[in-house]
């Protein structure tokens, strides 16, 4: 039921900028992202989950870091938005990693990263 209204909204709001890509059948999140990536024509491709909220100025540091090194994988700083009053609760910056059991972990960056004082700097590795 969302098919036509969604396409109309996207075409009106973002003409020539955003495409709606549909699979022939339900294939799951990762296959849907792969098909979206195949259809993408821009210089940078981003994947965002439905629950993601963007703050003003989010794109500039991300695109700057990608421009410096196109092989970078950019991950967000994750904060919490309180459901009762929409207040943003900032969380400490962290790197994303995985345990041997493949559980996602949030790892505090090394001291030299904190000392640099720029939260948009890349974290090359976490020891």
From TrEMBL:
GO MF entry, a single one: polypeptide N-acetylgalactosaminyltransferase activity
Gene Ontology cellular component annotations, sorted alphabetically: Golgi apparatus
Keywords assigned by UniProt, alphabetized: Disulfide bond
One BP annotation, GO: protein O-linked glycosylation
Boundaries of every Glycosyltransferase 2-like domain copy: 2-98
Full protein name: Glycosyltransferase 2-like domain-containing protein
Naturally occurring in which organism (per UniProt): Bambusicola thoracicus (Chinese bamboo-partridge)
